[in-house]
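Postdoc handover notes: sequence design on the structure in folder B. Input tokens:
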């Protein structure tokens, strides 16, 4: 999603801004731009192509400067076109006094636009962002810090902004509310960015701004005022931000690389877990787990499906009731709060706007026992929650999440066992058996990855289809949902998932000889029921593509294609089955020639609502 980088220095900052944008590039964007204070004027360069193209454009005209801001945009308001790309200028392109970049959504943009048009401002874009640029210009007093503090009072919605003025050449002012923003401190120079990763190699001295903060960046000072306009000191952290996208190595795409990293990252996520204990989630975890008598999981997309899987685990093993809600729904609906709930948020980036808002909503309803499963230790989510488990998936570049999902599942299984233990539902023998299975997970996943050639053969068939159904039962139903989501996201094939028993209540009407039906068939208590559901599909001519456990006695035949999973893996079986579905989606997309790592319309780290 959108990325911001800004700098005030005594050297040419173009390389810092461009490098910062490149580090944020993997999140997905549709346009990018840079504005600099150059020779007493504001100048900008914008592109609907890649950051490398923007860099070339800037080199051609020799665009350099000591003060500036840069942006990657993922359009929410207005088409992904160059006139909508940030930075936005005010009062006009040729007479720019204010330059501004923004992440988020301004909800009262229509009202503000009408007001500003009445004042004579002419809009050049369809974005909600441009209203902020004109608003700042309209309120400008000659002191940008003071002006921005006034301007943000008029904004409703979510924003992280960075702005500078032609009249104050060594100053960038930034503010946040609902979208992440950090400050990077240098020696006689200061920076702002939407993520510390953007500044890796420039500075490791990072301040995480809080909601409502406005910061004044000058050469030797970084002053922050809080939401009440009171000057505040915020903790400076030394952050060794990872340097972004790693090398592809022998892989064609990051998604493929990340699928194949799963044995290692699942191992890393579980490393050091020699026994089950609540303290894995934080010092207060034992007390919290004792206090709660239900769990509410809040998440979006793939993380939501890991939450759904965890519901099956927690209810069957720990015997604690669980509800799982889509964060963007939960935050706006009337629900019945219960203070003895453990609120669990799941997010790869820890910055997912909907999930953070849902968490805050839950807290506002008096539910203070919060825990997050997250891949970024320094994220807003980790900072907001009482307890946390940090997955060790490493940077996930592919927009379609893979290794983040399996590491989330690994952490959620640990949570299940910890809750079971606190509730006296885990014997020492059971604990030892589960730990043994978890230790063996990396090699079990590797065995699934070895199925790639067989899955590639199936992908050839799938690439010619426009629809697909996915079936699962029990804890494999969320895995069917995740498999369908993967296929949709990167191959653009319409795919839907159903609990297999639900087929006859409607979706069976879709089954013809043209319909591939992917079936997850672990050898569990529901296998005979599932076989009946498969017969229902075959009777209507549907083509079954079955991932069957080694001992499930399902054989290939007319219209029934079977790939045998290496072993039956009990409770942890969802972690293995999803890997085969990831490979199926990947190879289908490859055969269709889509942009696997940057699927159309999607972005990583969804920091807007
Ligand atoms: N609303 C702004 C910024 C969008 C954004 O933050 N995307 O991640 C726009 O549409 O330009």
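Designed sequence:
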């Amino acid at each position: 999603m959108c990325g911001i980088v800004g700098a005030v220095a005594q050297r040419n900052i173009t390389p810092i801004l461009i490098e910062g944008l490149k580090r944020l590039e993997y999140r997905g964007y549709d346009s990018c731009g840079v504005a600099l204070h150059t020779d007493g004027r504001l100048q900008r360069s914008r592109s609907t192509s890649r950051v490398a193209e923007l860099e070339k454009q800037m080199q051609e005209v020799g665009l350099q400067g000591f003060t500036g801001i840069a942006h990657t945009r993922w359009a929410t308001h207005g088409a992904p076109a160059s006139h909508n790309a940030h930075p936005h200028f005010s009062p006009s392109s040729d007479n720019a006094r204010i330059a501004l970049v923004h992440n988020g959504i301004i909800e009262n943009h229509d009202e503000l636009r009408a007001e500003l048009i009445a004042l004579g401002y002419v809009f050049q874009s369809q974005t909600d962002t441009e209203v902020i640029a004109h608003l700042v210009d309209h309120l400008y007093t000659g002191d940008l810090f003071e002006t921005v503090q006034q301007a943000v009072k008029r904004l409703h919605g979510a924003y992280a902004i960075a702005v500078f003025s032609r009249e104050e050449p060594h100053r960038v002012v930034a503010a946040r509310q609902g979208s992440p923003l950090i400050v990077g401190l240098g020696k006689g120079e200061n920076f702002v960015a939407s993520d510390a990763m953007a500044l890796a190699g420039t500075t490791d001295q990072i301040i995480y701004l809080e909601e409502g903060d406005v910061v004044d960046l000058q050469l030797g000072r970084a002053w922050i005022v809080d939401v009440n306009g009171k000057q505040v000191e915020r903790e400076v952290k030394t952050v060794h931000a990872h340097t972004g996208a790693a090398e592809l190595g022998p892989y064609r795409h990051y998604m493929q690389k990340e699928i194949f990293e799963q044995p290692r990252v699942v191992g890393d996520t579980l490393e050091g877990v020699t026994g089950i204990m609540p303290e894995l989630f934080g010092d207060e975890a034992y007390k919290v787990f004792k206090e709660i008598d239900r769990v509410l999981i809040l998440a979006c997309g793939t993380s939501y499906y890991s939450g759904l899987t965890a519901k099956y685990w927690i209810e069957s093993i720990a015997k604690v009731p669980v509800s799982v809600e889509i964060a963007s729904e939960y935050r706006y609906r009337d629900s019945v709060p219960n203070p003895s709930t453990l609120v669990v948020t799941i997010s790869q980036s820890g910055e997912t706007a909907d999930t953070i808002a849902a968490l805050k909503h839950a807290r506002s309803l008096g539910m203070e026992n919060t825990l997050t499963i997250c891949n970024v230790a320094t994220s807003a989510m980790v900072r907001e929650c009482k307890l946390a488990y940090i997955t060790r998936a490493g940077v996930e570049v592919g927009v379609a999440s893979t290794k983040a999902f399996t590491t989330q599942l690994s952490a959620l299984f640990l949570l299940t066992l910890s809750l079971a233990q606190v509730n006296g539902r885990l014997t020492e023998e059971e604990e030892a058996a589960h730990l043994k299975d978890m230790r063996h997970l990396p090699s079990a996943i590797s065995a699934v990855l070895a199925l790639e050639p067989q899955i590639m053969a199936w992908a050839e068939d799938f690439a010619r289809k426009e629809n697909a159904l996915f079936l699962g039962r029990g804890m494999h139903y969320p895995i069917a949902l995740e498999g369908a989501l993967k296929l949709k996201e990167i191959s653009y094939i319409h795919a839907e998932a159903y609990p297999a028993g639900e087929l006859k209540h409607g979706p069976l009407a879709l089954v013809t000889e043209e319909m591939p039906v992917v079936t997850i068939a672990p050898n569990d208590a529901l296998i005979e029921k599932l076989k009946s559901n498969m017969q229902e599909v075959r009777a209507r001519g549907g083509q079954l593509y079955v991932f069957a456990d080694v001992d499930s006695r399902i054989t290939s035949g007319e219209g029934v294609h079977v790939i045998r999973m290496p072993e039956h893996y009990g409770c942890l079986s969802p972690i293995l089955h999803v890997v085969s579905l990831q490979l199926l989606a990947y190879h289908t997309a490859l055969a269709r020639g889509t942009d696997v790592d940057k699927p159309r319309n999607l972005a990583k780290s969804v920091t807007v609502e």
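Context for whoever picks this up: The CA atoms of residues 97 and 166 lie 5 Å apart. Don't rerun without checking with the PI first.
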